[in-house]
Each structure stands twice: as C-alpha cells, then as structure tokens.
Amino acid sequence: MYICVCNAISERQVQDAIAQGASDLGDLQAQLGVATCCGHCAETATEYLPGGRYAADVGPAAAGLIGQVEVTVLSRTAVRRVA
Ligand code: FES
User: Which part of the chain is the BFD-like [2Fe-2S]-binding domain (predicted)?
Assistant: First the structure.
C-alpha cells in the first residue's frame, strides 16, 4: 500500500525507515521524500511514528524479533494401499 502517492512511497518503506531510526516527519521527508509534494500523506505517515496509531507495526526490530526464527515442521504422512 502506498502512503505517499506523489512519491510512490510504500507503507513498508515508511516502516523500514522508522525501524532504522527515523523518529519524526522530518526524518521521513529527508530519507524517503514522503510528504514533500502535496503533503496529503503527512498525517498518515506520522501515524507510523512512535506513539502513532500504526506505531506497533514498525517491523521486526520494534517487535523484538531480530535474531529469532520460528520454524514449523510439518510431519510427513505415509499413504499405503490396503488390499
Ligand atoms: S501524497 Fe505524499 S506528498 Fe502527495
């Protein structure tokens, strides 16, 4: 999903920038160019910053998942013909 249509900046790009240290709209503007044209995306982009509505979804670093891997192993089922 695009956050900034003018500059084709995606939600993922905003989340990654914040996970890497962007802490205010100025950082997002400088790093990504978000909200540097019409400005309609500024409020939405700000919601991804710490304290914002979408702040919890800022990637694995914020979730504390870096360095952890979850593995699901599916069991194998043998199918045999019964006479
Ligand atoms: S939508 Fe982001 S500057 Fe226009």
Answer: 2-49
Query: Looking at ligand 1, which atom is closest to the CA of residue 38?
Result: 4
**DSSP readout, 60-71?**
HHHHT-TT----
How many angstroms is it from 2 CA to the middle of ligand 1? Answer: 10
- Supply the CATH number for residue 52's domain: 1.10.10.1100
Which domain covers residue 43, as residue numbers? 2-63
Tell me: the pLDDT tens digits for 54-77?
985 545 555 555 555 555 656 666
Residue 50 lies in a domain: yes
Averaged pLDDT score across all residues of the chain: 83
Query: What's the total number of domains in the chain?
Result: 1
Distance (Å) from CA 65 to ligand 1 centroid = 31
- Ligand 1 pocket check for 8: Cβ under 6 Å: no
